[in-house]
Structures are given as structure tokens and as C-alpha cells.
Amino acid sequence: RGLGGTMVNLVVWSTADGTKVQMDRPSKVWNNVSYWPGGGGMLEPGSRPAQGYFIVGSWGEWEQVEEMQRAGDGSFVSTVTLGMNGFETFQIWLDGEGDRILHPATPTAPCHTAVLGPSEPHIAGGLSWMIDGRTTLHHAVVDKPAEGADAGAIVKVPERVPVPTRDRGFPGEQYEVKLLVAGKYRAVSWRKLGSIADASLAALIRGKYYVAGSFNNYDFQEMTASQTEEGLYTAEVEQGLDNGEFQIVRNKDWEQAFFPGDAGLVEGPHVSTESVFRLGGLNNAFIIEFHRTFDQEGSDTKKVSWRRRRSSTQ
């Protein structure tokens, strides 16, 4: 018997062309300590406020600035009320100026993180802290009674189960936000106060809703709350020569956007750059309706619909 074929062993090596490929590795500065209570060093003059530190966030539509008060330990504090969606995002502005922003290194940063800046909006945009009072769901295997032929037995079933978090809270609960400054070290933290906002803050907790779409250059057009039906908001929009893409946004905060999901459901609140509602048709005026209700168990039901009002050429 014979054995035919070819046996090959190939060793390949190469080098990159430095004129076509970036050879230098990107440098990264690692901060081993985000905050040191004993201080150390000094802030640059441009990083110090002349008047004070001001907090601005989603509860005030990123427009209302509030001065933080100096506490006895030398920190700066402010009270934040959790809104309807169960989370709020914020930044801190030096002297209340929107082009001198203190921010974290990442979007939706958690408690006890270092402060960067002051930075201009094109750098700090999207970089904010998030107080998240929502329940977190994690994958787990739980015991459940079997059904059918195996009735009476206990079987293992994969399921998403709620897990309590440090900041777990409900709409209306309040948190104390604290800015710590010790020399060149700065950090932001917060704690739940255990207090509930009074009835005078009901409108703050409920918030406002806006339509943002291709027909208004993704600016925020406020929706009108119904005086007769709880949780119903409407807006009339003029559609041009496009398919009328849009999302619903609470408090002008893109982290609190609502958009279409699977099986006709409305997803959110959270950020999405891909999924949008589409009106269809050209040169028409539409009335957009957003209906949001909560049952006694806190289940959040959302519905978005629209109807043609009239032709803009009429």
C-alpha cells in the first residue's frame, strides 16, 4: 500500500509599516487612588470655584442649577428627590457655568467615584453620575414545582430574579449628594436620607414629557398633560418630507427615552440610538399620544399612538 499527499509546516512572521500603521501604543494614566481624605497637592486655579459648586440634573431638565451647601466636614451637599422613573443623573458645574463641568470618567457613574474637570460640554456630554433606585434583575436558577406528569416534584428553572441594591428606592425618596474636596482629590458620593418628598413636589416627581424627532431636529417639544385622564400626554407635530422618526423623552434627559420594542411594546426609560417610532406619510400634521400608568403593584404600562390631524397643505 502507498501513502500519497503533501505535509506542510509554514512559519510566518512580519512587521508593520510604520508609515501606514500607528505603532505607538496609546498611553493611559492610571489613578491608583480616586480620593484621599487627608488631601495632598492643590487644585489648579481654573479648577476652583469663585462662587461655589452648583448641581444640575435630570430632575430639573438639565436647566435648573442649584448651589450646593457647605457642610460641617468641609464637603458640599445637596438633596435630590427620586423621580417617577426611579433614577436621576447629574453633573456639578463650577459657579453654575455650563462650560465648566465637573463629571465622572464614564456615563451613569456610581457612588464613590472620582471627579474630573472642569471640562467643556463637548467633552463632558453624556458623562454623569446616576442615583439608581431601581431593582436589578439577575439570572439565577430557582426551585419550582413541576407540572404535568412530574407534578409534585421540584425542578430547577432558570429565571431572572430581583436583587436589592445599595441605592434601592422609590419615587419621592430623597438622597443627599456630597462633593468631597481634599487638596487635588475630589469625589462624589450619596446616601439615602429616608425622607419622602411632600405633596408640593408631586409635579417634580411626575416630571414632564417631550417629543423629539426628525420633524423638529430632535429638539424637545413639550407634551400637554391631560386634565381628564391620568397619565395621558399629547403633542401636535408638523411632519415634513421624511418618515417622521421620533422618541418620547422625560425631562429632556436622553437616559429617560421611550421607544418601540418587540411585539409592539414600548421600551424605556433608557437611552437608545437605534429604535424610533415612525409616523409615515408626508406633509401632514399628527397628534402624538403617550399614555403611561402604574398599577397597585407598580407595574409600568406604556403606550404610544398617533393619528393624522390634517394635511399641512390644506
TrEMBL record:
Gene3D superfamilies: 2.60.40.3620. It comes from the Eukaryota. This is Uncharacterized protein.
